[in-house]
Each structure stands twice: as C-alpha cells, then as structure tokens.
Amino acid sequence: MKIAPSILSADFSKLGEEIAGVLDAGAEIVHVDVMDGHFVPNITIGVPVVKSLASSVKAPLDVHLMIENPEKYVPEFAKALASADGRDLKQDYIVVHAEACEDLSNCLQLIKSKGVRAGFSVKPGTPIEQYEQVLPLADLVLIMTVEPGFGGQKFMEDMMSKIEWLVGRRDTSGGKLAYEIEVDGGVNEETAGVARKAGADILVAGSYVFGAEDRRGAVESLK
Ligand code: DX5
Ligand code: ZN
Predict the structure, then answer these.
(1) Is residue 184 in contact with ligand 1, taking CB distance under 6 Å?
(2) 3-class DSSP state for residue 100?
(3) DSSP states of 144-167 as a string?
(4) Sign of the CA dihedral 76, 79, 83, 87?
(5) Residues 82-134: pLDDT tens digits?
C-alpha cells in the first residue's frame, strides 16, 4: 500500500518542510489538489506551485486536477513537471476528472503524449462502469470517497463497490489492464483498512496525516 499525503492540509508557509517530513515518515507519493472554483467550489493552487515542487521534491507527484476544461491545462501542468532538470516524468501522475473532460480518451492520451502517467477520477455520484472502454488507457483510477472540494470530510464506504469492480476488471483482463487504484477522501486508520480490503493500491490522506503530531505513526497506521 502506497501513501500519498495531500498537501491541501499542510502548512503552506513551510510547504517544503512539511513535504520532507511526510516523505521521511514513510509516504511514497505527494498528492497535489488543484481546484479552480468552478469544477469544485474552492480554489487552491496551480501551475507555479507544481513547477516549484517538481524541482524540489524527488518523490512522485500526483497532480489531481479538479478543474473544468482540463484539456486546456494539461499541457501547462506537464510542462511544469518537465521544467525540472532530469526529472523522470514517468513517475508522476496527472489525474483529470472524467466529468470535466469533453472526451476522456483524448484527455488521457494527451497526458500520455507528454510522458506523464495518466489517471482519471470519478466523483461519488458518478458510476464507474461507463468508463470501461477507456480503462486500457489509464495508468491510475482515482475513486473519490468524499465530494471533491475540501479536506476533512467523512469517508463514503459505499464507494468500495467501485474499487471491487475495478479490481475485478483488472484481474480478468489477462494483463491488458494495469492501472493502479487510488482512494481519496476521509482516509484515516479505520477507513484505510476498509479501502485496503476492497483492493486499493494507493491511499490519499490529507487531514489525517498532516493533522497528526506523530506523522510517522500516522503513515504507518495507514499501510
Ligand atoms: C478533496 C481532495 C482530497 C483532500 C483529502 O477534494 O481531493 O485530496 O485533500 O483530504 P482528507 O484526507 O482530509 O479527506
Ligand atoms: Zn485529491
């Protein structure tokens, strides 16, 4: 199980230190929540922050775009990642929301054409089965277990059926489907167990990890 702390809950006045701390505590991936105030009712960070992180953080970055019109901005985010000297973009993810893409296949192909791992996410109210045809293009599928927009919400356990469905498709694909399954929202030591049992590969955790005094203990408790 890989852990991806969401910097949304970090102290932005010392972001570098905060990220170094959670990586040192055993986390593998850094989750970056980009919100535009349209797709979700909140505004967070954008391209310049991703650019700084790309050159200062060695660990994989998982850029979760909660924005409208992602086709327009994917090239800019990919460019921000690529601006870091010697960075291997194949370790990083750009994740778009299926609901926001005019054509999800095109969107995933666009991300892949930049050399970055391509992911898509679905909101709690969006069924996953309708995207079966695009699964071969996905390196990652992100299942939201809260309504996107804010940290600190309650985990929706009924989303586990989406994870089980994704595991089932992958297991019976004869190696054709190779996406990782990521869970985002309301992850803590109890709900991590639920997501693990359902078959998640990566857990995003914001408030639980950054809110903990003992961050090493918090990361370990999720694995
Ligand atoms: C919500 C974001 C999440 C959020 C998770 O829209 O996508 O990544 O930061 O925060 P917690 O872990 O506090 O639910
Ligand atoms: Zn997120």
Answers:
(1) yes
(2) helix
(3) ESS-TT-SSPPP-GGGHHHHHHHH
(4) positive
(5) 999 999 999 999 999 999 999 999 999 999 999 999 999 999 999 999 999 99
- Is 41 near ligand 1, meaning CB less than 6 Å away? no
Q: E strands along the chain, which residues?
A: 2-5, 30-35, 61-66, 93-97, 117-122, 140-144, 180-184, 202-205
Dist. CA 184 → ligand 1 center (Å): 6
Helical (H) or strand (E) element with 10 = none
Q: Give the residue extent of every domain in the chain.
A: 2-222
Alpha-carbon span 112 to 171, nearest angstrom: 23
- Which atom of ligand 1 sits closest to the CA of residue 206? 12
Residue 24 is a catalytic residue:
no
Protein fold of 2-222: TIM Barrel (3.20.20)
Residue bearing the CA closest to ligand 1, atom 9: 151
Instruction: Kindly report whether the global pTM for this prediction surpasses the value 0.85.
Output: yes
Whole-number pLDDT of residue 66: 98
| Look-up of token digits 């990083």 | 92
* Angle, vertex CA 144, rays to CA 108 and CA 195, nearest 5: 115
Distance 47 CA to ligand 2 centre (A): 16
Residue 186 Cβ contacting ligand 1 at under 6 Å:
yes
**Closest listed ligand to the CA of 95:** 2
Distance CA 155, CA 80 (A): 32
